[in-house]
């Protein structure tokens, strides 16, 4: 029995339809009445980039807001944009815009994969994590870049109106990663 046969086309089609369908079904929406901010996730190169944005609470599991596949995987199903200003000079498949809960610390994680499938950790090229405070009404851009296939950066900018009626990018101060001791802390009582 050959365990390494290529899967049949119907099985591949079923797998991809479930992956793409699940992304559409479980779209995050901020709680009603909560302060919100907009964020644009971009990948400067056409790698298959996985980006996650979430809330990093103190000593509790991270609440994931969005999981975005940028690059080739994003060509299969479009996603709505928020018509944020200052469109980056990258193809639409490398952009993902979302509304998230604001007035809290957010974490953005990004990794490039050498595979079309988002296989966590197996084929990752470069991982980076950034924390920042998102204020209500803010418009942010998280730009993931890879240099020389081994060094990556994730820059957070805020999109601000300028004095001439246009827009400008302003670098956002990032916050330190929560202490590792927090990982070993007991879960707070509920």
Count of individual domains = 1
Query: Could you tell me the number of beta strands?
Result: 9
What structural category arises from helix and sheet content?
mainly beta
Q: How much of the residues is beta strand, in percent?
A: 35-45%
- Major sheet, described briefly? 5 strands, mixed
Number of helices: 2
> How confident overall, as mean pLDDT?
71
| Unreliably modeled segments | 1-26
Radius of gyration: 18 Å
| Distance N to C terminus | 52 Å
Summarize the helix and strand pattern as letters. HEEEEEEEEEH
What overall form do the CA principal axes indicate? Answer: globular
Protein name: Lipoprotein
Keywords: Signal
Signal peptide: 1-27
Organism: Ideonella alba
Characterization of the model:
With 190 residues, the chain is mainly beta. The protein has one domain. Helix content is 11%, strand content 41%. Strand 8 (151-161) and strand 9 (167-171) form a beta hairpin. The chain starts with 8 loop residues before the first helix and ends in a 6-residue tail after the last helix. The model is unreliable at 1-26 (pLDDT under 50). This is Lipoprotein. Residues 1-27 form the signal peptide. Keywords: Signal.
């Amino acid at each position: 029995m050959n365990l390494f046969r290529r899967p049949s086309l119907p099985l591949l089609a079923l797998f991809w339809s479930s992956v793409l369908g699940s992304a559409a079904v479980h779209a995050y929406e901020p709680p009603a009445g909560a302060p919100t901010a907009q964020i644009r996730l971009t990948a400067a190169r056409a790698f298959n980039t996985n980006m996650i944005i979430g809330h990093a609470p103190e000593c509790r599991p991270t609440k994931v807001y969005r999981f975005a596949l940028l690059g080739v995987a994003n060509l299969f199903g479009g996603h709505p944009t928020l018509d944020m200003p200052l469109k980056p000079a990258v193809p639409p498949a490398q952009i993902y815009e979302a509304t998230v809960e604001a007035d809290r610390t957010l974490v953005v994680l990004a990794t490039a994969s050498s595979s079309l499938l988002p296989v966590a950790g197996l084929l990752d090229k470069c991982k980076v994590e950034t924390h920042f405070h998102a204020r209500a009404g803010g418009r942010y851009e998280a730009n993931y870049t890879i240099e020389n296939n081994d060094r990556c950066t994730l820059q957070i900018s805020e999109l601000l109106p300028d004095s001439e009626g246009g827009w400008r990018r302003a670098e956002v101060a990032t916050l330190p990663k929560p202490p590792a001791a927090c990982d070993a802390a007991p879960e707070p009582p509920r």
